[in-house]
Amino acid sequence: MPLLPIFHALGVLLLIAGAAHAADHTNDAPPFMERVAPPETGMLILVRHADRNQGETDLNDTGQARAAVLPDALADLPLDAIYHADFLRNADTAAPLASALGLTPQVLEPDETLSTRLVNAAERSAVIWIGNVGNLVDLWEALDLGGASPTRYGSIAILTAQDGRWQVAWRTFEP
């Protein structure tokens, strides 16, 4: 059996996988963010927006149900601010939490300074970032956390700064 058709097929599969990965990160953060040390104290919560159908901007039914239970999942945490990327799915994920807490969500541009702005906001406070796959991965790297970032629907990473170090706790929120 000639190897050329096999290599050609593998190349096509790699191109398709790369295109799918790139499409998944369209409009997300740049591939880098400023590295930033944790504050002495504070809390930064990282969450991916709730479920949507690929290629759509609105939350699907599961996403709407998941967003509705986010306030319960964080009810024991004293949140001071809600931040999210400027996408409808992120705003819709933040809305039930904002309503439950009486807070106004704030839009932040997920650029190279996002990590610094969020860490500064979390100093002596508790804030949440409702992001997208790309900017959550970049944030995780910029915060030098190692391991997997909270890019799955329903994952909550609670980063608590103590003595200038992050402690990571995990939760989920399921409809």
What does this entry look like structurally?
By secondary structure, the chain is an alpha/beta fold. It has helices at 3-24, 61-73, 88-101, 114-122, 133-142; strands at 41-48, 81-84, 106-107, 126-131, 155-162, 165-172. Strands 3-2-4-1-5-6 form a six-stranded mixed sheet.
Alpha carbon gap, first and last residue? 51 Å
One letter per element, helices H and strands E, the order comes to HEHEHEHEHEE
Main sheet strand line-up: 3-2-4-1-5-6
What about the largest sheet?
Answer: 6 strands, mixed
Number of strands: 6
- What structural category arises from helix and sheet content? alpha/beta
Radius of gyration: 18 Å
Helix content: 25-40%
Average pLDDT number: 86
Ranges where pLDDT stays below 50 over 5 or more residues in a row are 3-31
Q: Tell me the fraction of residues in β-strands, as a range.
A: 15-25%
Helix segment tally: 5
Overall outline: globular
Short description:
The protein is an alpha/beta fold and 175 residues long. The chain has five helices and six strands. The chain is 39% helix and 21% strand.
Summary tags:
single chain; 175 residues; alpha/beta; six-stranded mixed sheet; 5 helices; 6 strands; 39% helix
